[in-house]
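chain below, 489 aa
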Amino acid sequence: MDKKNFTFSGKLLFVLLIFNTLNVFAQWQTDVRLTNDPSLSYTSYNNTWCIASNGNVLHVVWQDYRDGNLEIYYKRSTDGGVTWGTDVRLTNDGAFSENPSVAVSGQIVHVIWQDNRQGAGNDDIFYKRSSDGGATWGADIQLTNDAAYSQYSSLAVSGSAVHIVWHDTRDSDYEIYYKHSTDGGISWSADMRLTNSVGISYYPSIAVNSSLIHVVWYDNRGGNNYHIYYKHSTDNGVSWGPDTHLSDTNSNSADPCISVSGSLINVVWEDNRDGNIEVYYKRSTDGGSTWGADARLTNNTADSRHPSVASSGSIVHIVWDDNRDGYQQLYYKRSTDGGATWSADTRITNTPPFSAYPSVSLSGTAVHIVWQDSRDGNLEIYYKRDPTGNPAGIINIGSVIPKAFSLSQNYPNPFNPSTKIQFAVPKSSFVKMVVYDISGKEIETLVNQNLNAGEFIVDWGASNYSSGVYLYKITAGSFTDTKKMILIK
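prediction:
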């Protein structure tokens, strides 16, 4: 046998064994207490994410009462959640600073929150960023300035583009507003009103994939019941499509959360159509143009609330709080086929009296969750992870440091519906790998993080794309390379 083919076959077998091992032994590790003070520490509402990850660096934000009023705090882990740094106070004023959201792109960490330092009855959205991975932080930047309530903001980033949404009372009732930055948070656009209905529009959640921006919220424009609505922009937030009604019209639907992976859009919310509150899910496989049916994800006599969703390729992860056990605890489930089918519920906390308001984030093969927890007699922030719960992530396949950057041909090729791409990184670098259609349109980002030196495999699941030729491009420092691959269905 040719030595080159033998080496390649051996590597492929090794990778397949790794993937099988991950699927068999994926498990949640023990809870980690992140705060320890006699005051109250809260996570935000489920429309935001209180945790963001970039490779092995994790960023967590929360609101905390230890200073006599609510302030925003931050901490990070640089080893994938094994150990954690000290608490960092991000705000310092005599007002309430609350409901933070965090996102990261490369070394730039973005945080937004609402703050009433301008006076009672005048909450505004504030922002700050770190340009060195959370080591140091810039000044607070006021993003809204009106005599109304600007509250419950949600944040998403794609490269240097930063997008935020919030609900706002400047128009007498609550409406959804949006603004963005195209230079990594240095300068910002004017506020843009996204909704204009006679009802109340609440608690938006935002997700972004390149220039495609997706927003969901709940709204009672149809009468007394609240329903889930959606809209998107295809030009980086410059213009927006119409509002799309997503949920059932005969029940109350609330607290939506959205994630995006390529053309797959995932929306979860809580819904009382079954006589109690259950978690529901809906997906679009064409970037938000059309939508599938509502899918009920929970089925018990208790209330299942505050779902948070994250996705990577065709794998979708959901976490929520649930009182089926007599007290609120966290439950989790995932889909490995883009939301078509779902695993059984997995209980991931077991500590009365309650665990609530979780946020979920993905990094490589790991799933990370933070939440607020009362097991210590007061509310504290807790964290846990499943280091192998996202098997479509990036796998380091060897300990030998390569001599040069390289990008291998995907295998299998042609493929249906998934393929693997191997690449080599000779030194610690920020690596980005993007998939394009044959016209050159960016459709999915597979890698967008700092990686240590090594050889890696990344999986691309193309179940939501049509047959054809696709391109994949890697950028790492000054190195770039592009190759073709063929999807045949």
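The two ends are 32 Å apart (CA to CA). The first strand starts at residue 32 and ends at 33.
thats it, cya
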